[in-house]
Amino acid sequence: xxxxxxxxxxxFEFGMALGHLQRWDEARTALMxxxxxxxxxxxxxxxxxxxxFQQKRYAEAAAWLRRGLRLDxxxxxxxxxxxxxxxxxxxxxxxxxxxxxxxxxxxxxxRFDQNLRVERLVVDRAFAxxxxxxxxxxxxxATEARLNGLGIxxxxxxxxxxxxxxxxxxxxxxxxxxxxxxxxxxxxIAVFGGVPYETIYPSYxxxxxGAMNVESLLRWDAQKRRAWxxxxxxxxxxxxxxxxxTTDERDENWILRRSFAGAAPALGEVHVSREVLAGTVAGxxxxxxxxxxxxxxxxxxxxxxxLGSALTPELLSGGWQAKSVxxxxxxxxxxxxxxxxxxxxxxxxxxxxxSTPARLYEKLHGSERMHWYPQAMGDVYEVEQRVRAGKTFxxxxxxxxxxxxxxxxxxxxxxGLIGTRDGRKGSAPLGxxxxxxxxxxxxxxxxxxxxxxxAGPLLDVGRVSAPAxxxxxxxxxxxxxxxxxxxxxxxxxxxxxxxxxxxxTNAFFATVAKQF
Length: 516
Prior knowledge:
Blueprint: H1 8-20, H2 24-37, H3 42-54, H4 58-71, H5 76-88, H6 92-99, E1 106-112, H7 120-126, E2 133-134, H8 137-150, E3 155-162, E4 168-175, H9 184-192, E5 199-200, E6 204-207, E7 212-219, E8 224-235, E9 238-256, E10 268-283, E11 289-306, E12 319-335, E13 340-354, E14 359-372, E15 381-394, E16 402-403, E17 420-421, E18 424-425, E19 430-431, E20 433-447, E21 451-465, E22 477-488, E23 491-500, E24 506-513
Parallel strand pairs: 1-4
Antiparallel strand pairs: 1-2, 3-4, 5-7, 6-7, 7-8, 8-9, 9-10, 10-11, 11-12, 12-13, 13-14, 14-15, 15-20, 16-19, 17-18, 20-21, 21-22, 22-23, 23-24
């Protein structure tokens, strides 16, 4: 039969017949011709999904099913088919998004790895769903948030196993940190990986099998000594709540300069001593919203002062300080089938400093974090963006200023600038207002399950406003370069190269990370 004489119905029947004969390419051609003639009929999209599904081209099948659902969002067969495809792709959240509209899937049993050392009660409570009921997407996300909050699972998977009766068994498969780590080699790397820069990270996880963690940092660098210890655990063995107690002592020498390389005269000098005791409680009730509230008592002292153009007496007011701290993060956008999410966050720090004279100040901070896997399956490519901004109301002491630059005690990395020079802090911009956007594109270069490497280009853009002219330049700061992350069982090293486009200087940096 010539195509010109075939109707859309004829194309459909012809394509179906060819499909039954497993003549997939010819079947696809016939169905595409029928779809062109009848673009508002969902049956062509659904059957095209079936054709590529038989060829195990799951990502293409999912795309056709999404097109079919745009024509009829309530078709039960298409919803079930879409859930099945995403389930086979390993994208459980996307599968739940479709299955939940059909009151599926029904979980009849929970199973956990038998070799997990954490107390079973803690893991049971981390799961927001129970057997003998339907598993919802919100319950799945809440479970992930609570497992992340325990801090003992660098990698894990909440799997669903289909049973012959159409029901499912849900299981937790995880690499667990217990004691000094999840194994001898990862533990040694995690503890002693910072020895080249005179730092060790002694930490002990899952104390008493109750997901209590003791983490610490000890640095004996003569220019920036530090001792930091944090103890955290579920509140009353409830993983949806977690308390933290932290102590932090610093003894640092600062020389303020405009650059970490080349000619850069000293613009001020100060020795900073600070002791902090802090406590917080965090909540993980849902997968979309997390929060924390707490307080901090600290004492600071400044000595060896050379004011120069970067420092003022007001910045160097010492004494005792009390601070309240609160944070909130909310997942604004979550598109599981596109493997895309965006989280917005805010924090507030309100403090009273008993200096001469006494003062009040507040630091407000906002953030946005985007994460996207461009491919429908796997993690070969990965895109991340993080945008942060902060503003201070009132007059902060020197050690409460924001720093934009690569430095081990700082998380606002502008990766073309290094925050130390000759071992002393002060070569990165400091201010009481800032904007910073970090953009990363990674490609997984190698991964055998135990050892992995991912690398890619970066672009950072930032700006700082300072209370004194010598603390920060007035123009925009732009850095480009590349970053590589090397992992061994969840513990890794970050290797960073950045180039400051304003000055042309190059920055190379390496640091240890617990996981990424």
